[in-house]
Amino acid sequence: MTQSMTRNMKFINKKFLLALFLVTSLFTFAQKKEKIDGVIAVVGDYIVLDSDIDLEYIQLKAQGVDTKNITRCELFGKQLEDKLYAHQAIQDSIVVTDAEVNSYMSEQLDAMIEQVGSLEKVIKFYKKKTEEDFKSYFFDIIKMNKLTSQMQKKIVDEVTITPEEVRNFFKGIPADEIPTFGAEMEVAQIVVKPAITEDEKKRVIEKLKEIRQDVLNGSSFFSKAVLFSEDPGSSSNGGFYKMNRKTAFVKEFKDVAFSLAEGEISEPFETEFGYHIIMVEKIKGQEVELRHILISPKVSTQAVKDAKAKIETIRQKIVNKEITFADAAKSSSDEKETRNNGGVLLNPRTMEPRFELTKMDPALYAQVSELKDGEVSLPILDQERGGGQFYKIVTVNNRFEEHQAEFSKDYIKIKELALRDKQIKEIAKWTEEKIKETYIKINDEYKDCVFANNWIKK
Asked: Cys-Cys link to 343, which of 298, 329, 381, 453 (CB 3.0-4.6 A)?
């Protein structure tokens, strides 16, 4: 037994040692047509089953992927990579809790059932005999996937790139391989939201206070959330969320959530989605498990008409050149994220004020594609994330035709390419090192596969 194998074996529990002994013994029967248990590889603390590859094919087909040119060896190589990441995540003390896995599994299972119609059909799709078998299998897959993704993130998060490295990367691209960037445009908008009356705000706040008092008097927060919450992402689950400081919730929500003690219920507070109350169920280190109820104030028909009239007036002043679009945005737009920037939208992918047409949100593209430079659209009725309606006008400030990459003009995009290239190289280097020091055994049936990595350790 080599030193690296001995080093890795110390992390394996007794139960796995027994399994590993059985698996290793089975490899001596690789010439037989039937593989006992279907084990085709061992990577550290994990095994790969032949059925894992079969299920990969099933899932790819379910996603509409043409699998006729995808070989079992390619999918096997992916399985080996995933297991290596998950194994190393455990060695690096990356923790994925059972509660986190169960919460995600519940969400995914609900989505699957909604898609195919019933739990029985989901179980049949994955070729499992019972609900217990399926959930056990699904739990293990989710946990491994979360360990894998966190390990990958840990590797690439440590990768940074300097301007000099970006320059050298660009210089190193052969002239006939310099990338071409698609046509882009810079878009700006002015938003006018219908006004909500103080009486309506008061009605919502009083309703939430009434619910809060009912819960304090013994009513179920879960039931109240199912009955009254207007949050489509959590109402059916009793308003449940699990979050930490990095979870993508609005600041106001996180500030309240992390200010509460276990069992405490907040007073009503406002976010861009409406008004909330939060009840904290558990605090686990940096994580909070909570339930919340959201109720959004309702907009009157007259308020909608007034908003439309206001934005029509703004548009007319811009068209008549009484005010520029940018100045009108600064003085009149209700969208705080873009108001101070003259209404200019930032691409959420790049945080640049440019949108590549082929990757643009279809709804936004439909609103601006026919506009000439400087032309202002007619008022558009749109809907915000919280569900409320608003009116907006949009314009195209600049257009950039399809062109071959230029270092000065396209630095941000080139930097992304350079960083991605460096991350890929870092992952490849990491993988090569970990393969050397991790116990790996491949069934003889798959030893003729041509892998991108040295899984056979030749």
From this structure: 329
Q: Are 82 and 140 in contact (CB under 8 A)?
A: no
Give the 3-state DSSP-derived string for the chain, with helices as H, strands as E and coil as C: CCHHHHHHHCCCCHHHHHHHHHHHHHHHHCCCCCCHHHEEEEECCEEEEHHHHHHHHHHHHHCCCCCCCCCHHHHHHHHHHHHHHHHHHHHCCCCCCHHHHHHHHHHHHHHHHHHHCCHHHHHHHCCCCCHHHHHHHHHHHHHHHHHHHHHHHHHHHCCCCCHHHHHHHHHCCCHHHCCEECCEEEEEEEEECCCCCHHHHHHHHHHHHHHHHHHHCCCCHHHHHHHHCCCCCCHHHCCEEEECCCCCCCHHHHHHHCCCCCCCECCCEEECCEEEEEEEEEEECCEEEEEEEEECCCCCHHHHHHHHHHHHHHHHHHHCCCCCHHHHHHHHCCCHHHHCCCCECCCCCCCCCCEEHHHCCHHHHHHHCCCCECCECCCEEEECCCCCEEEEEEEEEEEECCEECCCCCCHHHHHHHHHHHHHHHHHHHHHHHHHHHCCEEECHHHCCCCCCCCCCCC
CB-based contacts of 63: which residues, under 8 Å, 6+ apart?
A: none
Q: What is the pLDDT of residues 196-222, one digit of tens each?
A: 889 999 999 999 999 999 999 999 999
How far, in Å, CA of 443 to CA of 39, rounded? 8
Q: Which two tokens stand for residue 56?
A: 């990969």
The span from the CA of 308 to the CA of 48, in Å, is 60
Nearest to 413 by CA among 458, 335, 347: 347
**Residue 145 is encoded by which pair of tokens?**
């996937």
CA distance 22 to 106: 34
List 270's β-bridge partners, or say none. Answer: 275
| pLDDT at 386 (0 to 100) | 59
Query: Do the beta carbons of residue 299 and residue 194 sit within 8 Å?
Result: yes
Q: Is the pTM for the entire model greater than 0.70?
A: no
For 279-313, how does the pLDDT look when each residue is reduced to its tens digit (9 = 90+)?
A: 999 998 888 999 999 999 998 889 999 999 999 99
